[in-house]
Amino acid sequence: MLFLEGMEEHYLIMAGLGFATIIMAWLPSFSKKLKISSPILLLLIGFGLFLIGLPLGWPDPLWNDEGLMYYSEAVVIISLMGAGLKIGANYDLKSWRKPLLLVFVTMPICMLSAYFLGQYFLLLSVPSSLLLAAVLAPTDPVLAAEVQLDDPMEEQEHEDNVRFTLTAEAGLNDGIAFPFSYLAVMVAQAGSWAAFNFTEWFWDKLLLKIVIGVVIGLFIGWMIGLIMDRLHKYMGVKTFVGFLSLSLTFMTYGVSEALHGYGFLAVFFAGFALRYYEKVDQNYKKKLGEFITEMEHLLMVVYIILFGGSIMNGMLTLTDWKGILFAFLFVLVIRPVAGLIGLAGVKEGFKSKLAVSFFGIRGIGSIFYLSWAFVTFDYFEYKNELYAITAYIILISIVLHGLTAPTAIEYFRKKSQKTQEEASN
């Protein structure tokens, strides 16, 4: 400890962050060997760095709302670009049925369950119950990376059935959940359901902004693919820099938000449209995906380490036993049951549907919506409780899904390979 006290604070911070990020070079391999996901290991590192007193500006126990909003926003849009780039032309319209069912059937069931439990079990106000339902709506594209598609060049429609569904769901519902965060804010601002302007919310926040976001994303992704193709074909200019995916992420998000669209949806569909533009070199698409994935991992490291510090600093003590019970119910019962209901009409094995339903991972997307709502409207009740309940759900999700996801995904991969081998013989 004398050695630590003798060093200047910023050197300690640089050393600590350097240590935490450099281990990402080996974490994926360790995760596969240990059959647990890397967020669990990062969480333990966060606990350790907090205990030795590394001066990282740990949340005490909550973050600053505005700073948290901007950071989580960046992490989510980078991850959504990665999700879009992972989905290629191997997936036809029929393949999209399951993720669409999860978005338009499972997600509303989860939201209604969270809202009514917030009202009548947690005894929250109407706006706070709506906000709780909204922030728990999206599955997370960041922490769920290990149950999503990997190399888009090696994708196989049947082999990656479970992972495709989870990837597409995360890409879609992170943007479609935004209208319901607006709903919570607008009801809170109005003061009651009776004073709330439903027409404005429905036509503007629900329909118009979704359509604009999707259209802008598809157009920008297609246009960038077209430009790259034409530059190479007519001018001999070949694009092969990975950071284009990062530039495309921020440009698409900014343009969409400026033009009254949902940037989350725009970013996902921009990545999807670029990946789908088959005239662009396949190796370059792989490089784009690898670059954005590494950026996502870097930001995820910092977030989870600070999240671990906030837990050690008492964030989980800001709610009572009801909040804890609700968190377990949401992860272990509500999402899996809602998922099975949504997929009830799908002709597929029960194990596959159960896996998709169970791995509804919650994470940084929920944190963004929560901080966004508090920045947008500063008078929400039960702020500490909402942060703590969300933190419990994220922690349970990291640990539970982190311990089970690698084994489950490997099981379905081997099962699919065996089926394909039997079919070819």
Automatic annotation (TrEMBL):
Residues spanning the membrane: 12-28, 40-58, 70-88, 100-122, 206-228, 259-277, 298-318, 324-346, 358-380, 386-409
InterPro entries recorded: Cation/H_exchanger_TM
UniProt domain Cation/H+ exchanger transmembrane: residue ranges: 21-406
This protein's GO CC annotations: plasma membrane
GO biological process: proton transmembrane transport
Signal peptide feature range: none
Keyword Membrane included in the entry's annotation: yes
Compartments in which it is found: Cell membrane
Protein name: Sodium/proton antiporter, CPA1 family
Keywords: Antiport, Ion transport, Membrane, Transmembrane, Transmembrane helix, Transport
Entry GO MF terms: antiporter activity
Membrane topology designation: Multi-pass membrane protein
Pfam family, one: Na_H_Exchanger
